[in-house]
Write a structure and sequence with these properties.
This protein has about 270 residues and is mostly beta strands. Helices cover about 10% and strands about 55% of the residues. Strands 4-5-6-9-10-12-13-14 form an 8-stranded antiparallel β-barrel.
């Protein structure tokens, strides 16, 4: 995960350098386009910051940009047949809620601004869910989850994770600028995700640190909805996925994921 985040930063900075080299021509083209009330631009953005300066003016029209925004940091919890309490048959998935987390961010977006208060955009990003298991067990790559291996060692950390490419469609409502030059935001919409990988990370005195990668029966395609709201560059988020976390007959049925927490960069 750390390598992916660093790669995203490097890609963004590289593209930012290229954009600065062509700033003069781009600025002239953008100026001519604005005169005709049309916008078609590609910029580099960090959570609302373009080329190191916060953009306070917005022009209606189409835009696309590489970005590092909507950075989610929160808790990841699960509903077992609508309950936060696990059923006896799914007790092997018992986990520490306060240490089961969600992290994600968007790296590209394209959309259309209808006016200064309303915009629709499609974005793409990466999203991780980490389940901090309480039991000393190991799931097997090519077998159903309930055919886990009970280990004879105690794990200080037994983390079961999934990584998805997330593709949300956002409907953004925002207020006018206040006296501080900031806005209130309310963003909502549907989201789909494509599974990139699953991972087990275990730490014990006997074995040290071990990592295992595979699909681990996570649902290859997930779909759900999200909501974000906040002020300036900070806010809160909630995400809920309608289909099960795991593939049918390979994991618990009617087992849903709900994530919520803080976010940075609208």
């Amino acid at each position: 995960m750390k390598r992916l985040v660093i790669s995203a930063f490097c890609l963004t900075f590289s593209l930012g350098g290229y954009a600065q080299e062509t700033q003069t021509d781009t600025l002239k083209a953008a100026t001519d386009t604005v005169k005709n009330h049309k916008v078609n631009k590609v910029v580099i953005e960090f959570g609302g910051w373009e080329h190191g300066r916060k953009s306070k003016k917005s022009v209606n029209g189409f835009s696309s940009q590489f970005t590092f925004s909507r950075v989610d940091l929160g808790l990841s919890t699960y509903l077992d047949q609508g309950s936060y309490n696990l059923s006896s048959e799914n007790s092997y998935l018992d986990h520490d809620t306060w240490r089961s987390s969600n992290f994600g961010f968007d790296f590209f977006q394209m959309g259309y601004r209808f006016n200064k208060n309303f915009k629709v955009y499609l974005s793409s990003g990466l999203d991780w869910n980490h389940i901090r298991l309480n039991r000393d067990i190991t799931f097997q790559r090519n077998k159903p989850l309930d055919q886990f291996v009970t280990e004879d060692v105690h794990f200080e950390k037994n983390r079961f994770s999934s990584q998805y490419l997330r593709i949300p469609l956002s409907f953004q409502l925002r207020s006018n600028l206040d006296h501080k030059g900031k806005r209130m935001y309310f963003v909502f919409g549907p989201e789909v995700g494509l599974l990139l990988n699953g991972k087990i990370k275990q730490v014990s005195d006997e074995r040290g640190k071990e990592k295992f990668k595979g699909k681990y029966n996570f649902e290859p395609f997930r779909y759900g909805t999200f909501v974000r709201m906040g002020y300036g560059g900070m806010g809160v988020f909630a995400k809920y996925y309608f289909n099960d976390v795991f593939v049918e007959d390979r994991g618990p049925k009617d087992f849903k994921n709900l994530s919520f927490g803080f976010m940075f960069g609208f």
